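Please review this one.

:::
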Amino acid sequence: MTVALLVTSTIAIAIAIWDPRPLLKEADTLIVIWIVALAAWPYIVIYCVAPFFWADAAEAGVLSPALQFIPAAAVSAIALFSALREKQVDISLPAALVGVSIVFAAVAIGASGFSKVINFGLAVSLYAGVILKWRKVTLRSVGVGALISLSLMALATTIGAVANSSAVVAPCRQDKCGLVSEALTSPFAGNGNVLGMATTLLVPFAFAVLPAWRSLIVVAGVGGLQFLAGSRTAMFALAVGVAGLVVISLCRTIRARLVAATLALVVGFAASLRFMFVNYSGSTDSYRGYLWDMATEAIRRAPVFGHGPGYWWQLNDSALFQANYSPHNGWLDLLTAVGAWGVIVIVAGIIVQLLTTARTALPWLIAYYATVLSVGMLESPYVPYYYGILPFTAIMPLMIYEPRESMDPELDENLSIVPSIPVGEKVENKDPSTAAI
C-alpha cells in the first residue's frame, strides 16, 4: 500500500507537468537548477541517497550536510560571482533587509565562542546569491523550478521506499496513522515531517505556472506524500494554501486575486499565533507546550536582541532541558534567536518585497507566505540566518526579481534616452529571460 501510494503520487505529479520542455524553455535555466539543488536535492539525499551509504547521520558525520547542500551553495556562488562581473547591478533591498539578521547572527555566533558555526556558514553560503540583481527573474522561472523539484522528490522517495524500504519506511506513530499503517522515515531526518513540509511549501509556486486543474492534480500527488509523511502541520498548511490558491485562480481581476491572497495571509498569520490564544498544557500538540513555555521564558530574558541563533541547540545539548531542535513555532524561534529587533528587520524585508513586486506575481507570492505562516504554527520553517530544517523557505522567494510597473511610464521613457554607457564601450544585447543569473 505504501509503495502503491508513492507510485500514484509520483505519476500524478508527472501527469500534471506532462511535457516539461515548454515550461523549461520559458524559464531561466540556472534558476531552475538552483531551486532543484536547494529545495529538492537535500530531501532526495535524506530519503533516497544517504540511507544507501550510511546507517545514520552520526556515521555520515559532516558528509551528510555537505552532500545535501554543497550543490546549492555552489549555484549560489555562481549567482553571486555572475552578478559581480556585471557593470550595473542592484542590491536587492528585501534580501539586504532579511540578510541583516545574518550579520547579527554572525556577531552572536562569535560572542558564543563560534558554537554551531557550521550551521551559520551553510546559511551564509546558501543565501549569498540572492543579494545582487541585475536582470529580471520571473515568478514563472521559480514556479518551474518548484514543479521539477516536486517531481524529482516524489520519484526519489519512491525509489528509496522500493530499493531500501527498511531505512525509508517504518510503522507509523499511533497518533499519526491514517490510510496506511506505515510512514516515511529516514535515519537522517527521524520521520517524514520535513518532506511533508517541503513539498507543501512548493505548491504555491506550482499554481503560478500551471492551469488550476493541472495544479490540483499536483496537489493530489503532494497529498499522497502527506499521508505517508505524517506531518499534520504540513497537511494543515496545504489545506490553507490550496484553499487560497484555488480562490486566487478563480478570480478574474488582479484586485480580486490580491484580496483572496490577503485573506489567506490573515488566516496563516492567525494560525501562526495560535499558541497565544489557546489554553495549552505541556503535553499539547505532541509536547510542544513545554517548548513554547521555555521559549517564552527565554524571550522575556532577552526580548530585544534574543539569545543568538545557536541558543536552542545549546539548550538541547545541555542536560537541563530536552529542547528538541526548535521551539516548534515560527515566531518563537525568531524571537528567541534574534529578538524583536531581528523580527522587525526580517518582516520589513518581506513587506518591501511585497510592495515592490509586480502585481501579476504578487497574489502567488502572498499565498506562499501564507503557507509559510501556516507551517509556522507548529514548526520553524523560516530561519534565514541559520541552517535549519527548511533552508529554502527564506531564499527561494527572494530569487524573484519582478519589479512593479512604473507609476509614470512616460517619465521612464524620457529618462531611458539618456545614455548610460560610456562612449566607445561596446553594447551587448542581453535577453533577460535567458541570461544566467
About this structure: The chain is about 65% helix and 0% strand. The first helix runs from residue 2 to 17. The beta strands are 90-91, 132-133, 169-171, 182-184.
